[in-house]
Each structure stands twice: as C-alpha cells, then as structure tokens.
Amino acid sequence: MSIRLAATAYALPPTSETVQSILERERDRVAAALAAVGPELRRRALGELGIERVRVCDGLDPYVLMRRAADQALAEAGVPGQAVDLIVDYSTLPGDKGVSAPLAHRLASELEAETSLNLSFKFGGCAGFHLAVRQATALMQTDPRLRTALLVATDSPPPGNRSLLPITVQGDAGSAAVLRRDAGSGPEIVATEVLTIGALYRVIELVQGPGGCGLELRVDPPQIEQAVMPIYYLHFHRLIHKILTDLGLEFGAMDHVVYSNLSRSDRDGFRRAFGVPTEKLEAPGLRDCGHTFASDLVLNYTELRRAGRLRDGQWILFASAGIGFSWGVTLART
Questions:
Q1: How far, in Å, are 24, 52, 220, 234, 242 from residue 301 at the CA level?
Q2: What is the pLDDT of residues 120-160, one digit of tens each?
Q3: Cβ atoms of 179 and 188 closer than 8 Å
Q4: What is d(CA 255, CA 127) in angstroms, rounded to the nearest whole number?
C-alpha cells in the first residue's frame, strides 16, 4: 500500500502589510515581549527576523482561502469534490468566527462530499501538518473505504496579535494537500513522527482579551528562552534520527528539507544544527509571507514543486515545530 502527496496548493489574501508597520502598531506588545528576554535573543528577534511583509485578510473571511486552496489542489490531483473520503482541518487561528466553527464540515458540504469523514483539531500550529498527515494516513491504512484525503488549514490571528516576538510575525494564508492511496502520482509518504510536551502548553495561549472582549494570543517570552530554546533542535534530532535509522538512511541523503517560516534566525539555526546546505533548505515564503502557522510547509513545498526542482527518486524531509508544544517530521520520496 502506498499513500502519495498527490497535490498541494495555497491561497493568500490580496492585501499585504510591512512588518515595520505591524511592529509599530503593536509596539506595546513588542516592547513587553522583548523586555522579558535576554539581550542576545532580543537582538536575534529583531535583527534576524528575515520577514519584510505579510499578507493580511483585512476583512476577508479566512475560510475563503481554505476553499480556494482546496479547489486548486483537487483540480490539480484530478479529483472531484464528491470523491473525497476524508477531510482533516488542522487550522489553528481561522479568524474569530472560525475558532469553534466546524470548517471541515462546511467544506464537505460545499464540495458535495456527502460521505466524507470530517475531522478538525486546533493548536497544532506549524506542526499541525504532521499531525494531520499522521492522522489521515493511519485512518487510510486501516479503512479500505478511505482512498482520498483532503488536508486543509487557514489561519488569521485576532486583531492586534500579529507580533509573536521573540519568535515571529504572523501572516495569513490557507492551504490544502491531497493524499491518495494506491492511486495517482506525487511523492510517497514514507514516515511521519511527532512529539509533544504538555508541560509547555502555556508557552503560547489563545485567551480572552482584556475585559473579556475578543481573543488574544499570549506569548510567554521567558518560557521561550528558558524552556523551549534549550531543547528546540534536540527534539528535531530525536525525530529525524528515528525516521532515518528505521530506514537505514543518512541525513546527507535528503535532497530537500522543507522548513517553516518562523524567522531567518530559526532557519539558520536548523541549518547549522543539521549541517544542511543552504540550497537544500526550503523556506521561500519567509521574506514575503512570514509565518502562516499551519500553512508554512504546504506553501514552501508548493513553491519547490512549481519551480520544477523535484526529480524522481528524491527524498523530501518536512520539519516544523509549533505551539502545544509539538515537533514533527515527515519523510516523502518522489
């Protein structure tokens, strides 16, 4: 049995905003976050962010981005909406209206996927892609009726919460990936590993805003610096070592490493930790899209594929970490 990544797509809102204007508008939030960390992390957070501008919904319903990406991915895979057997929504921040709305069910209705199994989970963050792949492949392997899965996400933070310093600045995006069992083309999903640490669940929280009005993304900068950073790359090492050891592979065999868009500092830290040549570490959305939470990996992989850089027999390693706190890696082969 093989499960292939048959198609991917992403959608961006038409409006963009510079990071400089966001940091100025959210200056009190930025100042409080940076005052709580040491000078070295403060320097990297601002000087090595590597994000110049992000896309913003600006009144657009983020669900529209999910639907656009899903339509494009299904068309590319040659799969009609009615043939989708499983929909997994792994959005983290789908706008205020979508925080508790069943977006997978809404999408299934609009696609006329009347018999699909529709699932949703929140707060996988950038690691949500791996959690969704693992969940979908496990179900597809055990239920012969599930032959085509659609993995979707869309994210847009509450107003006034785009700065997540000392980590990143968030932009908006929607994305979709089509998985097919024993059918179609595209890289085969070889293995997925995830790791979560519940003790770090409060590093980033979505809570009620001041006075109980609206929502707020609350970051704990001292926890980032003292509890997350010392083990951040270590857990990537654990997961990657397990996958490669199980398959008898060396890290040098990887042809492409698709990474998230947190910051230039984070990307360079991962590159140094694993000795990844710059040309193999894929994060093309970093400068102009910023961190899009759940959609980072799909966006960066889609750009890699559209650039015509994939060849038969190549190994692709997807790696990201997200709130929860979760780490994930997925290995695929073209």
A1: 32, 21, 30, 24, 23
A2: 998 888 899 999 999 999 999 999 999 999 999 999 999 99
A3: no
A4: 21
DSSP letters spanning 214-239 = SEEEEE-HHHIIIIIGGGHHHHHHHH
Tokens 């390693």 correspond to what residue? 317
3-class DSSP state of 207: strand
Concatenating the DSSP letter of every residue in 107-167 gives HHHHHT-TT-EEEE----GGGHHHHHHHHHHHHHHH-TT--EEEEEEEEBPPTT--EETTT
pLDDT digits (tens, 9 = 90+) for 4-39: 999 999 999 999 999 999 999 999 999 999 999 999
**Please, which residues bridge with residue 150 across strands?**
87, 178
pLDDT value at residue 220: 95
Q: Which amino acid is at 12?
A: L
The answer to whether 164 and 291 are in contact (CB under 8 A) is yes
Distance of CA 55 to the CA centre of its chain: 16
Cα of 109 vs its chain's centroid, Å = 25
Structural domain of 212? 1-334
CATH of the domain at 23: 3.40.47.10
Dihedral angle sign, alpha carbons of residues 50, 55, 58, 62: negative
Strands in 3-11's sheet, in edge-to-edge order, are: 117-120, 86-89, 148-155, 173-181, 3-11, 188-196, 326-333, 315-322, 256-258, 281-282
Q: Which of 308, 304, 311 is nearest to 281 (CA)?
A: 304
- Exposure on the CB side of residue 301, measured as CA atoms within 13 A: 31
Residue 89, strand partner residues: 120, 152
18: tokens are 């510079």
pLDDT of residue 100: 65
Q: What is the number of helices (H) and of strands (E) in the chain? A: 11, 16
What is the rounded CA–CA span in Å between residue 117 and residue 103? Answer: 13
Q: Domain total for the chain?
A: 1
Q: Distance between CA 98 and CA 15 in Å, rounded?
A: 20
